[in-house]
TrEMBL record:
Pfam families, A to Z: DHDPS
Family assignment from sequence similarity: Belongs to the DapA family.
Catalyzed chemical reaction(s): L-aspartate 4-semialdehyde + pyruvate = (2S,4S)-4-hydroxy-2,3,4,5-tetrahydrodipicolinate + H2O + H(+)
Any GO BP annotation: diaminopimelate biosynthetic process
Native organism taxonomy: Eukaryota, Viridiplantae, Streptophyta, Embryophyta, Tracheophyta
Keywords associated with the record: Amino-acid biosynthesis, Diaminopimelate biosynthesis, Lyase, Lysine biosynthesis, Schiff base
Organism whose genome encodes this protein: Medicago truncatula (Barrel medic)
Family annotation (PROSITE patterns): DHDPS_1, DHDPS_2
Entry annotated with the keyword Lyase: yes
Protein name, entry field: 4-hydroxy-tetrahydrodipicolinate synthase
Pathway of action: Amino-acid biosynthesis; L-lysine biosynthesis via DAP pathway; (S)-tetrahydrodipicolinate from L-aspartate: step 3/4
Function: Catalyzes the condensation of (S)-aspartate-beta-semialdehyde [(S)-ASA] and pyruvate to 4-hydroxy-tetrahydrodipicolinate (HTPA).
Gene encoding the protein: 25501009
GO molecular function, one term: 4-hydroxy-tetrahydrodipicolinate synthase activity
Enzyme Commission number(s) from the entry: 4.3.3.7
Length: 358
């Protein structure tokens, strides 16, 4: 996606630059105002130091919030605000904007920065805002990070370069480029990037004072190894979060399930070992990840009546059999623990809108 974003912006610059060069000999072209904002360089002096590293490193419960849509495929900001407010009311400490769960990879950079800015503007005094600025293109990652801090986010989250992989030295150089701008959380999820970030790279980057920590999805053995060396770690796996927190020393969790049951996930992260609650939630965790996230989550939130049943392709709703399974899970766990106030229902295929272009 980042490759396509970069390609389209380069094509746009090529076309408009040629036109501008020709026209500026006698007048200023109005095309200059049409250049995408993320192509404009931004000074790192725009970084807002609202949050100390100690505050960022102490976040125990962060929800990777879902981005809801309108029937035309654009953002449904009223519903988004409602989702975030429900998280805050249940004591969630941080919101991850436009991450994997928030479908940042289905957004333009302008959309992504706008959503970060909106979240900061509406909720920045109540919750820490972590903005996804990751890209496999270092130049785009730098610009997105500058833009994100300029609009007020507290920290940037960065995946390692994917598809066009690089060496360990390249990873270090890539991350140091964004670490020079402000607080960064490294995101290691080989199931998506197809490239594990080696511990040797993370330990080298830990020498940079702007490294907040790492969101680790490879498993709790890795979490325990890092915490044993004094690094701050969040697991990105709901199903491993209880043990990561209470047995492996993780600071906390970046949660998908928190979109649905923020109160219970906070309890799991704040109130000590609770294997009974963890076992009760395991079927829900398994259900959420039986297909790539956030497909099941999107379907679940729609069936709870808290978002409109709209998908941006390539995501589509799960089959009706799995939709019925979710209704049963809600009844087993208790409707009162889930977000929203409407009765959970099994939506029909015709209830969903799938948008290909937006």
């Amino acid at each position: 996606m980042a490759m396509l974003r970069g390609l389209s912006s380069r094509i746009f610059r090529s076309l408009t630059t040629t036109n501008l060069t020709y026209r500026t000999s006698y007048r200023k072209s109005q095309l200059a105002t049409a250049l995408p904002s993320f192509d404009r360089p931004m000074s790192t002096s725009g970084v807002k130091e609202r949050t100390s590293m100690e505050e960022l490193r102490s976040l125990r419960m962060v929800t990777a919030v879902k981005t809801p849509y309108l029937p035309n495929g654009q953002f449904d900001l009223d519903t988004y605000d409602n989702l975030v407010n429900m998280q805050i009311e249940k004591g969630v400490e941080g919101i991850l904007v436009a991450g994997t769960t928030g479908e940042g990879y289905l957004m333009t950079w302008d959309e992504q920065i706008m959503l970060i800015a909106h979240t900061v503007n509406c909720f920045g005094d109540k919750v820490k805002v972590i903005g996804n600025a990751g890209s496999n293109c270092t130049s785009e990652a730098i610009t997105a990070t500058e833009q994100g801090f300029a609009v007020g986010m507290d920290a940037a989250m960065h995946i390692n370069p994917y598809y066009g992989k690089t060496s360990s030295d390249g990873l270090i150089a890539h991350y140091n480029s964004v670490l020079s701008i402000g607080p960064v959380i490294i995101y290691n999820v080989p199931s998506r990037s197809s490239h594990d970030i080696p511990p040797s790279v993370v330990e080298k980057l830990a020498e940079n004072p702007n490294l907040v920590g790492i969101k680790e999805c490879i498993g709790n053995d890795r979490v325990k190894m890092y915490t044993g060396k004094g690094l701050h770690v969040w697991t990105g796996n709901d199903e491993e979060s209880h043990d990561a927190r209470w047995e492996c020393g993780a600071t906390g969790l970046h949660s998908v399930a928190g979109n649905l049951i923020p109160g219970l996930m906070r309890k799991l992260m704040f109130e000590g070992k609770n294997p009974t609650l963890n076992a009760k939630l395991k079927p829900l965790f398994d259900w959420l990840f039986h297909v790539p996230a956030p497909i099941a989550l999107n379907t679940a939130l729609a069936q709870l009546g808290v978002i409109k049943p709209i998908f941006r392709l390539p995501h589509v709703p799960i089959p009706v059999e799995q939709r019925r399974e979710f209704v049963n899970l809600v009844k087993e766990i208790g409707r009162e623990h889930f977000v929203g106030e409407k009765d959970v229902q099994v939506l029909d295929d015709d209830d969903f809108i799938v948008v290909a272009r937006y």
